[in-house]
Amino acid sequence: MALLPIMTVEELNRFLDTDFPQVHTDGKIFTVTNIGPGFATMRLDPNERHIRPGGTVSGPTLFALADVSAYVALIAHIGPVALAVTTSLNINFLRKPYPEPLECTCRILKLGKRLAVLDASIKPVAGDELAAHATATYSIPPR
Q1: Matching InterPro entries, A to Z (predicted)?
Q2: Which of 24, 60, 101, 126 sits between 20 and 30 A of 67, alpha carbons compared?
């Protein structure tokens, strides 16, 4: 049975804007761009604060992109549950991400009553080679 989203791209962006305005502390750098059965895609438009010496997007920025994307993929499918929280996130940095727009596609591997496991792939918007890969587990509060 396919996982079907119950929130739209517009609803998710509005939810982030209103319920999690802190993700926009550095300006609006995170944008939900696509939602589909079992997945979500977000875009990151890094600014100077996200670039480290050597001209690369920092690891903490990529970690944040994976984490926010996993959260968005989850709530797209279960609804706006503000208290769903990350219980673990493991990230592998694969290639130097240049300071350009990046996208993260996050797929739900398992969606249970209390836990969700997700897979996140980060790459340049204008490219195909992965910059990072992450797996995340989220705890879902009881309804």
Answers
A1: HotDog_dom_sf, PAAI_dom, Thioestr_dom
A2: 126
- Give the integer Cα–Cα distance in Å for 38 and 96: 28
d(CA 89, CA 20): 19
Residues 39 and 70: their CA atoms lie apart, in Å, by 9
Selection from 40, 44, 57 nearest residue 138 by Cα:
40
Domains in the chain and their CATH numbers? 9-139 (3.10.129.10)
Question: Under a CB-based contact definition with an 8 Å cutoff, are residues 108 and 77 in contact?
Answer: yes
The candidate with the shortest Cα–Cα distance to 78, out of 118, 47, 43, 105, is 118
Show the tokens assigned to 31. Answer: 């944008």
Pairing of strands 56-57, 132-139: unpaired
